[in-house]
Write a structure and sequence with these properties.
mainly beta; 9-stranded mixed β-sheet; 247 residues; 6-stranded mixed β-sheet; 10% helix
Length: 247
């Protein structure tokens, strides 16, 4: 049987300050787990000057129809490191609570950019621009990086909900283990979450990243693309990330 490779999806990163440039300002690289997922599904990542292409192997039937040799049978998460090439570029990139992306991610282990292809209802592929507002980067695309284990005093919350930002994610609930405990102990697997504190200090829900490799690489952020058995293998999707120019 003949085999052929087709593009399943692409990720390209743009900057409003350099709309027509072919220069390389950002890079996209798969994490180690992502490389394993690509291998499991007979897929290849090919880097280019705007980001990268994800290519899937297909079998060509006698009828001419092409089908993936290893289709998705369950939800899959493809995670990529997003990084920049020149520090000066971040000075021209906004926003971060009124500042620049440089103040958020350059040399910091606390904040990173985060982009995925899920909407607020955790449905995939309702939009191809991955920034939170659907147009270009905002402060909503900056997340705090959490350790896998952390604690929060009960004066701030009596219950913590952590909603995994995945397809069909179900909230994880944490409460004090004992009635007299002064802290809520939280332990989360690697991933991205929407964290909500209840019963204490009134604070809005915030997105949080738990990724050990992220601190080790010092990349500026993560891009996650989710796929499942409902994917249309005949329709490549071109995802974009657009960063705003400082005004």
């Amino acid at each position: 049987m003949e085999h052929q490779y087709d593009i399943l999806f692409s990720i390209s990163v743009h900057h409003q300050g350099y709309p027509d440039s072919d220069g390389i300002y950002f890079t996209i690289k798969p994490t180690e787990e992502c490389r394993r997922q690509l291998s499991r599904h007979n897929m290849i990542f090919k880097e280019n000057n705007k980001g990268g292409l994800i290519i899937i192997e297909k079998a060509v039937e006698k009828s001419g129809e092409m089908t993936p040799t290893r289709p998705f049978t369950a939800p899959v998460d493809f995670t990529f490191f997003l990084d920049y090439v020149d520090d000066k570029l971040l000075l021209k990139t906004e926003p971060y609570y009124g500042g620049t992306f440089q103040s958020a991610v350059l040399g910091s282990s606390t904040f990173r950019c985060y982009f995925d292809n899920l909407n607020a209802g955790l449905q995939a592929d309702t939009a191809t621009e991955l920034s939170a507002d659907g147009e270009a980067s905002t402060e909503e695309d900056i997340c705090m990086v959490y350790p896998a284990k952390f604690s929060i005093p009960v004066s701030r919350a009596t219950k913590i909900n952590a909603l995994p930002l995945t397809l069909k994610g179900k909230p994880l609930e944490f409460k004090p283990k004992e009635s007299a405990s002064q802290y809520i102990e939280v332990e989360l697997p690697s991933g991205a979450y929407e964290v909500t504190l209840e019963g204490g200090t009134a604070v809005p829900a915030e997105r949080a990243l738990v990724y050990h490799d992220l601190k080790q690489t010092k990349a500026m952020g993560l891009v996650r693309i989710f796929k499942d058995s409902s994917v249309d293998y005949q329709l490549p999707i071109a995802y974009t990330i657009t960063f705003r120019q400082v005004t």
